[in-house]
Amino acid sequence: LTISLRRGARLLSTAAEPIYRSPPPRVRNLIGGEFVESRSTESIDVVNPATQEIVSRVPLTTDEEFKAAVCAAKGAFRKWRTTPVTARQRVMLKLQELIRRDMDKLALNITTEQGKTLRDAQGDVFRGLEVVEHACGMATLQMGEYVSNVSNSIDTFSIREPLGVCAGICPFNFPAMIPLWMFPMAVTCGNTFILKPSEKDPGAAMMLAELAMEAGLPSGVLNIVHGTNNIVNNICDDDDIRAISFVGSNTAGMHIYARAAAKGKRVQSNMGAKNHAIIMPDANAQTTLNSLVAAGFGAAGQRCMALSTAVFVGGSGAWEDELLKHAEELKVNAGVETSTDLGPVISKQAKARICKLIQDGIESGARAVLDGRNIVVPGYENGNFVGPTILADVTADMECYKEEIFGPVLLCMQAESLDEAISIVNINKYGNGASIFTTSGVAARKFQNEIEAGQVGINVPIPVPLPFFSFTGSKASFAGDLNFYGKAGVHFYTQLKTVTQQWKDELPDQGVSLAMPTSH
Length: 520
Ligand code: NAD
Prior knowledge:
Number of helices: 16
Largest sheet: 7 strands, mixed
Bound molecules: nicotinamide-adenine-dinucleotide
Mean pLDDT: 95
Number of strands: 24
Helix content: 25-40%
Strand content: 15-25%
Shape: globular
Distance between the termini: 62 Å
Strand order of the largest sheet: 16-17-18-15-14-20-21
């Protein structure tokens, strides 16, 4: 398995293809510090969603290769856990520099495989880069606590130790940011890692892994395997893997949470969303319109923090014309084209699903203020494009409201009062994010206190906190106790150990006492 490869030809391979046609390259596994070709005969096409060109093929990593990856991670842990935290941090310092150096390459890969605009792809990398920067302060972040002389010359202190081998399972919508939520925090805490990128767009994760190796991450500390359900089940079942970070849909997330928990593993599982904005009649009109359009249609709605539902207190009538005008101005095109506002959705199946939910909504009484289903983009006629779509008069019983659409569709609902609007949001099963637009501090404060969502925005459409806080989704949007990054992220990737020690010139002879020791 471990053949060394020329630099520059490390991530992808073309060897298995016939010589007479130009083949899409095959993505490699990363095992024990080597980018190696999988022996698997099965693979999945990575398709450019704007053109349908096959960019590469992802192998379904075999069980044997998976075991080799776990074995490499387990072996590397012995040395890595005792490597000083300052040395581990230094690898992250170098990694952040290399990510900045290769920002454009990473962004282009994301646009090619995922479809989002180049500017948005840079944002994808940048929000992940901030987690790498955060990991550079790990020595302080993982500090323990100390209480001196809790009893007769006895001191107690707590230390945070790495867990061992951890794993991460990624979704398609942030091909750089989400791998970077995971492995930099995990490895800087002293763990070793198995990453399973999305099979739809693994390229950015592979490039980041190569940068991590260039930054000096020792062999076996980060490993990459590929595939879908089978490899994920292997990760859940393996006794040597101690913790799993998952980001993706509820179907996969709850399956992984239950299966891995049954094996005694820690799991943090970030899942689906239906993020609401409440718009008060006193809201600043321009800010609100800009925010709704940007957060509803940006990244073609394929963000877990997209604002997909707007609840207008007093009705949406007064807002619809302007909303329509703003949405119609957006340019739908391939992400590589300059001035594109939103690119294609990830696959033909995703487009079909989004269009079906729009149709269901209209058939059950929603009014199409703007219908983006029949859009054709000149030069990219095969792309999976859906134009901005606005449905008004949406009610909570409609399928388009109950399901996460994950496309450029903004649902408009109405409420008589702030109380009614808050109750609409709170009844919804998801709780990733919610925002209010208002100029009233009283309304904002009531919203902040009463809303049941993990990430709250006040005149801020996408309130995703920077890495010194945590990504705090709640209700059905999150399963587990410890969120991604921030203090909770460090706690997730470390095990607390407490030490109680007694040091005295002469240890006291107190005889044998079978009573519970006390500090009297
Ligand atoms: P997905 O669940 O289809 O895939 C995510 C990962 O799980 C992939 O690596 C995939 O191979 C694996 N997987 C999929 N189905 C599986 C199954 N049945 N058994 C085992 N493994 C399985 O998600 P996606 O379509 O790639 O991503 C979109 C979803 O991710 C949306 O629901 C979105 O809201 C969510 N998301 C959430 C957050 C968050 O932080 N809450 C962030 C980004 C995306």
